[in-house]
Amino acid sequence: MTEPALPPAAGKGELAVDRASAPPADLAIGAFSDHPPWLVRPEATSWRGAVPAARARTRAELPELVRPRRLPPGLRVVRVVRRLGGALVPWAARERRRGPEVSRAAISRRLRVAAEALGPTYIKLGQIISSGEGIFPAELVQEFRKCRDQVPPERFAVVREVVEADLGRPLSAVFSSFERRPLAAASIAQVHAATLRTGEEVVVKVQRPAVARLVRQDLKVMAWLAPFLVGRIPIAALANPPALVDLFGETITEELDFRLEADNMLDIARTFAELGQRGYVIPRPHPELVTPRVLVMERLSGFAFDDVAGMKGAGLDTKGIVRTGMIGFLEGCMLHGIFHGDLHGGNLFVLPDGRTALLDFGITGRLGEDRRLAFLRLLVGASMNDLRAQLAALRDLGALPVDTDLDAVIADLGLDRPPIDPTSLTPEQLTAEIQRTVKALLGYGARMPKELMLFVKNMVFLDGAIATLAPDLDLFAEIARISMYFATTHGERIAAEVGLEHDANWEPDLTGVKASFGVDPAATERLTYRELQERRTVIRDRLSKKAKAKPGGAAPGSQS
After folding, report:
1. Distance in angstroms (rounded) separating the CA atoms of residues 557 and 465
2. Which SS3 state, helix, strand or coil, does residue 532 take?
3. 3-class secondary structure, 515
4. Would you give the DSSP letter of residue 18?
5. pLDDT of residue 246
6. Which residue in 400, 490, 509, 385 sits closest to 447, CA to CA?
């Protein structure tokens, strides 16, 4: 039997690369590697024409999936209620009244076990929560981190069936080798190393066969359940259960069509190229071998992001890697309105030349022009210590209602008063201050819109990257350095877009930045990350003492 012919892009035809020539032509349109297995030519990419319609369908479908329902949606709800009830009832009966710390740890463990039993949708929700340090309770974040690397892979026969069905030919017609054991297995998909028949080493991302149907069922169930959970489980106040379902629905539905992910890869690679940002490398998606459930891409390799010894042994500048990560992320968000939405250690690694390779673009932040400008005003306002401009930008991002009295918010939160050093407060004072702030924000109708949540989540990751790669970095000096980079590199454009008079000698005002760390702006010239961690340890210890001293009390930030 004759095997089906390969598509032109997978063979040695017009897209084959002359590796003797340099640099690759597609570096002009994307931040790609210097040694391409094929060249990216958007006009010759077969799958990209279907992307606009696929995005439109995804967005149109979402409101129905997350619409609150009075009646339970289908039989799936029975299993979900049974599993969640099995987690919540014993916790409420035995552990809820044993103090906030014990209570949060117990419910976090029970919810993680229930999520793993309920399958891919709930595991994915747990993985998103696990990246939300600072947004969700620490116990919930730590517990759900166990979901990241403990998802059992699909059998190879199932993987083969999906790949062959989507590519329309036998596996052997496309690949000369295909590793049976996945490099990684996650809730939505798993990734295999392979080699094309023409010799290119690739990575193949394969979606789990039933996950799209299950996600849609589970979103309907979550939307029905969420209102019943308000006030019943400790969770971040600005991401209460119904809001969390909305946010989760926006992110996970975009991950169900790999053509959207491949398009995200090309768009982000293009923005980096236009910015002249070559500190990042995006793997090239294949021009032909991309379908809703299969994504073939260039294979890259390098140092794991936490392999500090390996990077330093290779002579790499770990402080420079952190700086590039911060600048590239902010540039994409502020100037192009698009950014990788799920930065964590498993989604990037460092190449031998010091550049950072970004992986997994299923969750990508895309800002309309109004919200992009709001983000720009937010960050410019922060660098200029303009409180009102920052709050106005948060309002325009959807974090506050449009009719919010910004001056009242400043007064109620005490933002116009000297900062309070949290390490100087007693446990009772610290807890009261947190509760006062959260209560005031909720009173104004504050919420966490998707783009802001992804932004904060990424900033939390970059915060942790500093701890790993550059613990002795002077944070204030680095913030000033990055601010000046934007002022000198993009200052004219930024000034025009936010309505400021451009001044090449403009310098940032770090008073507000220092206040946000709880230190005296006038008396504190420098703060290393190591010192910041010591301050955070003091704060955690005092909150812990307060929690243990008041068994049965409500946890700060919980719904009560």
Report:
1. 26
2. helix
3. helix
4. -
5. 85
6. 400
The pLDDT, as a whole number, for residue 259 is: 97
List Cα–Cα distances, 508 to 117, 188, 386, 511, in angstroms: 50, 43, 11, 9
Measuring CA to CA, which residue among 374, 387, 396 is closest to residue 414? 387
At residue 344 the predicted structure's pLDDT band, cuts being 50, 70 and 90, is confident
Contacts 24+ apart (CB under 8 A), 59-67: 61/253, 62/249, 62/250, 62/253, 65/216, 65/219, 65/220, 65/223, 65/249, 65/253, 66/219, 66/222, 66/223, 66/245, 66/246, 66/249, 67/223
d(CA 289, CA 47): 8
Kindly state the DSSP code that residue 9 receives in the 8-state scheme. G
Going through 344-439 in order, the beta strands assigned E by DSSP cover: 348-350, 356-358, 364-366
pTM of the predicted protein model: 0.84
Give the integer Cα–Cα distance in Å for 149 and 185: 7
The pLDDT of 540-555, averaged and rounded, is: 55
CA 12/CA 463 separation, integer angstroms: 45
Give me the pLDDT at residue 271, please: 95
Q: Are 191 and 222 in contact (CB under 8 A)?
A: no
pLDDT exceeds cutoff 70 at 1: no
CA distance 302 to 310: 10
Q: Cα–Cα distance between 122 and 118 in angstroms, integer?
A: 6
Which of 465-476 are b and which e, b meaning 16 or more Cβ less than 10 Å from the residue's Cβ?
bbeebbeebbbb
Annotated domain spans of the chain: 369-450+502-549
Q: Which residue has the tokens 């996970």?
A: 252
pLDDT tens profile 373-416: 999 998 888 888 888 999 999 999 988 999 999 999 988 888 88
